[in-house]
Structure formats: structure tokens, C-alpha cells
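Researcher: We're teaching a course module on how sequence relates to structure. For the next exercise, students receive a sequence and then see the predicted structure as C-alpha cells, so they can try to spot secondary structure elements on their own. Here is the exercise chain.
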Amino acid sequence: MSRLIVVSNRVSAPVDPAGGSVGGLAMALAAALRKYHGLWFGWSGETVDTFTGELKVEDRAGVSVGLVDLEAQDVDEYYNGYANKTLWPLFHHRVDLTAYERSYGEGYERVNRRFAEVLEPLIEPDDIIWVHDYHLIPLARDLRRLGVRNRIGFFLHTPWPVRQLLVTLPHHRRLVESMFDYDLVGFHTREWLDLFRDYVAAEAGGTLTGNDGMAAFGRRVQGGVFPIGIDVDGFLQACNSPLGVRTYDRMLSSTAFRSLIVGVDRLDYSKGLEERLLGYEQFLKDNPAIRSEVLLLQVTPISRDEVDTYQDMRGRLDSLAGRINGAYAEMDWQPIRYLNRTYRRDQLAGIYRAARVGLVTPLRDGMNLVAKEYVCAQNPEDPGVLILSRFAGAAAEMTAALIVNPFSREELSDAIQRALTMPLAERRQRWSALMQVVRDTDVSTWRDAYVSALRQVEIDPAGTAAPGGPGSGRTRV
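Model: And here is the predicted structure for the students to work with:
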């Protein structure tokens, strides 16, 4: 049986199979790698004075891991620069925050080439390669240049931008062209794939087929929609674990019989955190009779704190939370608990279960698994209500949530009021429909669907996908 090689910027294969603090994605990929005796390859997170390309191979809970160190300049230009200051804001429609610097693009190209050069000797003829996320878009191109003809798939964990914004990126055509060296490119939602296809047709002069195949740049690639999910059984176990139950009990005790509203997001401008706090402030203003009966717990771990944009945002959120608490707090209650720290998965499960309302209101998001985790953690007999942004990828599936426009503070305020007063029968009905979606699209289903589709893509002798799947032609365009 052929091996599966997973490639990502950072390797998150669990050291402990129990994986108390490890996400479901890492657990699912690790399970597949153990099944296929595969390899997880990526950056070690360490820097060296001079890049050597030395490969460090480790065993993590039965998963073979290949790690490579990068130079500090690589990290600054490739990771902090092009990935996080250029592609991330652009893909989330924040052109105002996008940094277009030539050195960033050069570092991005250099690191992808270095990844390919270190990985290529490890690849066996029957291996299939699965590359993840925006950090490594050109990796297949660089592997092909080294003679690799294996099946290579790519999955984007972020949204894909509209064409009118993507063209603001210098060398946007080269970036998209490199994606045609993959055999399969996958997206969370139909919308993201359609936006990619729109660029191919309008900017690259490509041709599209009804089954999501595309031809451009003299090559062909197969597109697909693969909505990612969570490890449902693992999350339920975390919820019912001793620490999960204890966290639930602590939350109920600490809220003093008030209704808990929860938001859990890493610090990022795509998450709509300022808009969320303003919407909650509007709720406090609109509902004076019940405002002291609720509190918002906002858990926001710090991320990318070395980037100026994130430092500025952290300061604004600290100020906003303080202003709202100062305006509305009473001697035995304050409306917001704002925490900049990380919690284990089982602790989060307990927090979610205690919350009467889950606020998931990003301004733009690839999927947002917090929405699915919140639903999974609920008590079926007395479930909470999910308020979900229409701009999260999860909104395409989770239509039984209260879908809101996060840019409207009045709409957020109304949704919070409706969620808190929703009858039990309606809460149960909505939760049941949402939980069915969570089960039907769990992370193992996502993983297996993608790997199966990659195996079935028909490729031409040069290793380029031919639209149409099994039985289609192998000619290049």
C-alpha cells in the first residue's frame, strides 16, 4: 500500500496519543499516517544561522515526523512576511493590511524550494502527497521541477479571495499557475472553489468543466469541496472527561446563575472581535432589564504578537473591554471576562457546555471549527444556541444556527436577545439539526473523502490532473 505524506508549515502530530490538548485535525491526520505508514513533514519551529537542509526524523506516537530548521531570515520573510503579512490578510479581504514587499515574496519562494529539496529524496514512487495551506502553495511546482511525478494534492484552510482583490497581489498569476502543478485542489466551501474557478476563467483564460475540472497554463487540475469537521467522538470524550466535567462545574459556579455567553478565538482581525464586543455592548444598552443576568466570556489566546497589526489590535481590545466593563459593571458583576490565554481541549469542552450562547462571528473565515465544537459540547436535553456569522465557512452547512451579519451591532444585539429567550423546544430542534451536520462532516470523513478523491484523480504521464476523474483522457492542453 502506498504511503501518505502530509506536508504543512508546522508539524502538529501528537506526542501523546491521548491528545488532551491536541486538536482533532492533528489527531485525524496522525491516524491516517499510522494507517498508511506515512510521514508528516514540515518546519521544526527552530532557527539556525545557516540553512543546511538537515532532516530530523522522529517518532511521535507511532507517526514518523520529518523536521527541518530554517534561517531567521527565512522565518521573517516567508512566515512572518509573505504568509502572515501578505497572503493571510489578502485571503481574508483585508487589503488595507496587506504588505507587498519584494523580499517577502523572495523568501516565500526560497523556503518552498528548500522544503521541496529536503522532501524529494524521501518520496517513494507510490507515495501520495498532501500539502496543506497557504504557506506552501508553490510546493508542488518545486517538486515537479525536481522530477516528482507522484499524485500531489493541496488543501486550503482559509477562504479564497475574490478575483478583484487577488489581482492586487504582485505576481498573482504566478501563484495561481503554481496550483496547476497539483492534481487536486480542495476548499472548505463551494464559494471558495467558485471564486478560484472565476479567477482561472477570467484572468488566466482557462476553461472549466462541469465536474470542477479546470485547464489553464497548459495544464489541468481537479477542484473539489471538502468541508472540514471535528473529531466528534474525541470531543465528546473530552467533554465527559474529569477535567471537562470539573471545568463545567466551575463555570456554573462562577457565573452565579447568570447565562453565560462564550466566544473562543485566537487574536486575529479576521475574527471580528471588536465588532463582537460592540454588538454585545449594544445588547447591554438595548436590554437594561436583563443585562445583569448575563456575562460574556471571551477567550482570546495571543497569536503573531511580533506583528504590529496584532499588537495594535490587542491594545484596542483591552481598551474596549475595559470601557464596557467600566460603563456597565456593578459591585458584584462585570459584563465581560476577557482572557488572553490558551486552554486545553477538555477545558474548552466544559466551558462550551456551560454556555447558553456560543458567539462565532468572524468577518471572514475558512470554516471555524469552534462553531462545531460548541454544538458538540451541548447537553441534548438543554442545549445552548449558536450565533454564527454568515461569513464563516461553517455557515454554508450550519443553517440551523442564528445566522448574523457581524458588521451590524444591532443585528448581533437582537440575536443575543433572541438566543437568551429562545424556548427549549426550538433550542432542541436547532441543536439536533446542527449536531447532525457535525456528525456527518467530522474530521475523519473529511480526511477520507479528500484522500480518496486524490487517489481517484486521473493524471497524465507528466503528473498533471485530467478533469473528469477515472476514465477521462490524459492529454495535456
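Model: If you want an answer key for the exercise: The longest strand covers residues 39-48. The chain has two domains: 4-229+443-456, 232-440.
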